[in-house]
Amino acid sequence: MSTSPQVAFVGLGAIGLPMAGAIAGAGIPVLGVEPAPAGRERAAEAGLDTVSDVSGIGEAAVVVVMVATPAQLSAVVDAALAAHVVAARTWIVSSTVGPDAVRESAARIEAAGGTVVDAPVSGGIARASRGDLVLFVSGADAAIAAVRPVLDAMGTARVVGAQPGDGQSVKVVNQHLCAVHIAAAAEALALAERLDLDPAFVLDVVGGGAAASFMLGDRGPRMLDGDAPVLSQVGIFVKDTGLVADAAEAAGIELPVLQAARDRFLAAAEAGLTARDDSSVIETYRRGAGSEGDR
Hints:
Layout: E1 7-10, H1 16-25, E2 30-33, H2 37-45, E3 49-51, E4 62-65, H3 70-82, E5 90-93, H4 99-111, E6 115-118, E7 121-122, H5 124-129, E8 133-138, H6 141-146, H7 148-154, E9 155-161, H8 166-194, H9 199-206, H10 214-223, H11 234-251, H12 256-270, H13 283-293
Parallel strand pairs: 1-2, 1-4, 2-3, 4-5, 5-6, 8-9
Antiparallel strand pairs: 7-8
Helix pairs in contact: 1-7, 3-4, 8-10, 8-11, 8-12, 8-13, 11-12
C-alpha cells in the first residue's frame, strides 16, 4: 500500500471500517485512523494500514471523519489543529452529529486553511460494505467535485446544499423518520403478540401491503429474533433522536411523534439495552406488558 495515502479515514467502527474498505476497494489508497487497538487489529485483518492518531495522516489530501458524537468530532479537529495537519486538505464529515456541530467544526477547519464537505450517510453496515450508502452532501461545488471519487466509492452522493450543515439537516429529517418507523414497527409487532397472533405471520402479511416500510422489513425480523446481531445500537438512536430534538427546538417546531419514539429508545437504554441492536426496543413493550395488561 502507498506510504502517501490519498485518503485518511478517521473512525474504523462498525460502519466506518466497511466504508473505508469500500473506498480502498475502489482503488483509492486508504490509511485508517483508529485509537482503539482492537479496531486497528480489525482493520489490519481487512487489509488496511492504520495509525492511532490523526497527527499521523501524512500527505493524505482527503480526510473522512466517521466518529459517533459531536464531542468526538470536536476532539478530532482539536488534534488535527494541534498537529498542523488541517490546511490544504478536504475534510469529509460523514458522522451524524447535527448541523451546529458541523458548522462549528467547519469554521475552525476553514480558518486553518482546510475545506469541508458535509456528507452524513444512511444505509447501514451491509450497504456500507457494498459501497451502496446514500450520502447527504453539502458544500462548495469545487470542494465536492474534488472528492467526488471518494464519495462515489461510498455510495450515491445526493447534493442537498451549498454549506456545511445542510447535509446534517437532511440527515436529521432522515433520522426522525428512521426512529419513528423503528418504534412503530416494535409497537405493532408487540401488539400482534398481545393479540395472540403469530408475529412472524403478521409481519409477512402486513409487510406486503400499505403498512410496509423499510424499517418494518429490515428491523421486524430482528425484533422477532431472540439473538439478533448488533447492526445498529440502541445508543445510536438515543443520540440521534437527541440531535433531532435539538434541531427541532432551534427551529421552533414541536415533534410529538418523534418525542414518543425517543422515549422508547431512552426506556430501552434505561433497561440496559444501550449496546443491543436497535430492534431490541421492542423489549420495552414486552417488559411492560404484564403489569399494564393486568390493570
